[in-house]
């Protein structure tokens, strides 16, 4: 793996102009589209609490998803290197945001990965590797709030 600087280019295009722009707080839509090269577009909006569309991704969803996905990718890598075969991985992550009008912010994200490993593999090692994955996760290392991990590791039946 090459070390160094990696750059990520995305475009966010606001699509919520209802004809009068931002002439008033309730006069514009919060919708936008995220694109990056030839990847599928991501329809976004603000959280419904902030007049957004509940059917579109909001920045808060995307942040929680980014933390969860980064952890998962590191975890799978570490398991593969350690000889632990992960057969299923599902995370029900939850972020908590404090809605302070002076400075809204996340107070924490809790990852709750549920993992099934191959029969005969080391379940205790599989659980410990979650802590290593957390230490290596680029996104977790880039935020200023706690990220907790409450893994459950099961061994394949049979």
TrEMBL record:
Where on the tree of life does the source sit, at the highest rank? Bacteria
List the Pfam families hit by this protein, alphabetically. Answer: OsmC (PF02566)
Full protein name = Organic hydroperoxide reductase OsmC/OhrA
